[in-house]
Each structure stands twice: as structure tokens, then as C-alpha cells.
Write a structure and sequence with these properties.
The protein is built from 14 helices and 22 strands. The protein is α/β, with parallel strands linked by helices. The protein has 4 domains: 149 residues, 3-Layer(aba) Sandwich (Alpha-D-Glucose-1,6-Bisphosphate, Chain A, domain 3), CATH 3.40.120.10; 100 residues, Alpha-D-Glucose-1,6-Bisphosphate, Chain A, domain 3; 106 residues, Alpha-D-Glucose-1,6-Bisphosphate, subunit A, domain 3 (Alpha-D-Glucose-1,6-Bisphosphate, Chain A, domain 3); 81 residues, TATA-Binding Protein, CATH 3.30.310. The strands form 4 sheets. Strands 1, 2, 3, 4, 5, 6 and 7 form a 7-stranded mixed beta sheet that branches. Strands 17, 18, 19, 20, 21 and 22 form a 6-stranded antiparallel beta sheet that branches. It is globular, with a radius of gyration of 22 Å.
Length: 454
Amino acid sequence: MAADLSQIVKAYDVRGVVPDQWDEPLAELFGAAFAQVTGAGAIVIGHDMRPSSPGLSRAFARGAAARGVDVTEIGLCSTDQLYYASGSLNLPGAMFTASHNPAQYNGIKMCRAGAAPVGQDTGLADIRELVESWADSGAPEPAATPGTITQRDTLEDYAAHLRALVDLTSIRPLKVVVDAGNGMGGHTVPTVFAGLPLDLVPMYFELDGTFPNHEANPLDPANIVDLQKRVREEGADLGIAFDGDADRCFVVDERGGPVSPSAITALVASRELAKHGGKGTVIHNLITSWSVPEVVRENGGTPVRTRVGHSFIKAEMASSGAIFGGEHSAHYYFADFWNADTGMLAALHVLAALGGQDGPLSGLVAEYDRYAGSGEINSTVDDQAARLAAIKTTYEGREGVTLDELDGLTVTSADWWFNVRASNTEPLLRLNAEARDEATMAKVRDEALAIIRG
């Protein structure tokens, strides 16, 4: 196929429609390019439950092996299970998944040895360049001695590693509903939760990359309605939803109320700081709640604010020696997990915190959820730069208001803040607002939206 990679090579990964935008021959070239750019003698590959994943994954393996690289295939896995394999085996890795995207999509998340991220500036641009050149001029010369392709099951080792990081031995019994969304949580949860004092109520654990029940994107409120209802019906202590590749988790309390990822970030941060003697750096992106840096400071830690995006968080984790990081999108990063993101480890922390005391989850998280937030509101605009400039003009010089442009535009006052960021892939502006009370938040949100939507 003619390779138009501009449509599928994103900032942090490869993602597109199969076979319209990419296919197995192209995946084979990606495997060869990954082998060349990493310079590795061996790599590890995993894939999710999408119909196209096994074929694409095997094609990538062939491409890498043809360049003399030994390939370990771990088969069906979650993205954080692939990071576990990359970290524990100290090998570069490739995960075939399109996360929460619809069934016809697939993609590749790549990392270097030790689960270090591969993004545009850390190898992905070089990989794209090689694939484009080979797609036009023919595949690269194979190595004199091809590499081997072998299989290895890492699920039990992954589960044991996670359970070793959070002490769940003395928690009270908990009833937990888990919605896997027909994604990889249905594969990992039974093994990770095995032997814990949990009454597990599974929902949509059947692996099905066509997502017959709902999209595997728990950040969209429509996709947790079934979970909320089931938690109430079962009288469960909490509910947990995973996205398609099970690297993000979303939590609902005993009443079915959604718990904000910022509150989970603050809760886990307090536990990680306690584990590290009340010292350590915690990373949070600039649209997490004010609650996060407050809780970090109250627990002896140092909060560090970053741009949105996992490559920024992971880079800051590595450079600052941070112990933990969290994003508004329900990605949670741990120093104990090679600075990579794992929703499963965050879920275990929530279970340990809830099971270690007698109150309900709603009461436990209230201490970490202190402000009124708008959630992310997307607006389609004709000219992103012009709308951002209009917001800047409106608020610049206003008394008691500060502006910063770390990522988009953040406008901050004593009682509220909001951030507006442009989407990299669509003609959208994304608004997040927060205030000390609901009425103030609504006023700030509506004023910002009026400017954005012109």
C-alpha cells in the first residue's frame, strides 16, 4: 500500500483504521524500523483482543526478526502488562492496541528497554522516516542471520509484581464490580485479584474487540452507566471500569457516583508518600484539581506541574526522580513500575485504602475532592489560535488574574482557574475549569465558553 503515515503516526504512538490506513505489510516495516532505531538485539511484543491485533503483531515480529532481532511474544495482554515485560526483561517493547478507539482502529505503543517511552522526539519520527522510505523503495535487506520468535506468558508474573507493591493482606472483605468493557481487563483482573478478599462481580469480561456492549472509554459518562447501575443493584462497595487496553481505570463509589481521577491521584499520592517516609516528588498535569498539589504538600511531598501527555509525565518522572504521577485522564504512573502508567496498580491502591478503614468510599474520597470542576468540555472552532488569543486579550491585565502558557492557556484567580488547550488532531479547543464552589465554576466556565464559541 502507498504509505501516508502523516495520518497514523501521532505524537506518542501509531494509530489508524485497518486495513484502510495501515495493514500487515506496513506493520512488518514498522517492526524492521523499530529494530533499527532501538538497535536492540531482542524485543518483546504484546497485543489486545481486537480482530486485527494478532496478525499485525505477528507481522511486526517478522519484520524485526528479519533484521536479526530475537522476538519474545507475550500474546494477549494489557498495555501495562507489556510495560511490565519491557521493564522486568529490560527489553524494548511494542503493544498492539488502539486503546478506547472503535473496533476498526488499531495501533502500536512502543517503548525502549525499561518501558521508557518512544514518542516523536525519542524515536517515533525516525521510525516513520524509515517506514516511508522502505514503503517507497522496497523493504530493507534482511540480516545474514534472522532472529528467533518465541512465546512467553507473563500474566502471573505481572500480577505477582503488582500485588507485591500494595499490601492487601489485612483489608476487610469488599464487594467490587468491575466493568472490563470487553477489553483486556477481562484477561488481567481475574489473575491480579486472585486470592484477595474480594467478592468480584464481573461485567463484560468476554474479550471482544468489536465492543458489543459499550465503548471501552470510561471517561465518557455514557460508558459507565451500566457499572453505576450494577454497583447500586449489588450493594457493592465500589465499581471499577477499565479502558480497552486496561491501562486506565475509572472508579465509582458505593452510590454509583463517579470519583474524579484527580481525587484518585491525590489518594494514591498520599499512600505513595507514606510508603516513602513522607518524602518525594509527585507529578500532576496542569488540569488536575487544586486538590492534588494541596494533598501532596500536606503529606510532606513536592508537587511538580507538567504539560498534558504521557511522554511529558514520564520524562519528568525520570528527571525528577518522582515516586508517582497522575493525570486527569485516569493515567497513573509509578516509580515502582518503571515510571510507566498502570491503572491496575492504582485500582489496588484504592482497594487497599478502602479496605483499610470502615467507612464508605464516598466518605474516604471526600477529603481528596475539594473543589467544583467542569470536566473537559470540547468545542469545535474555525481558528484555534484566534480563539486562544481572544481569551488572552480578555483576561490579560485583569486584577488578581495570572496567565501562563505552559500548555495552551491557563487563567488563574484566587477562587478559580481554567485552562484552554488546542487538540493536536481535531479542530477543537478543550476547556477545563475549577472553582471553590459550583456557582463560581459555572460562571467562569460559561464566560470562557462564550469567548471560545464566539
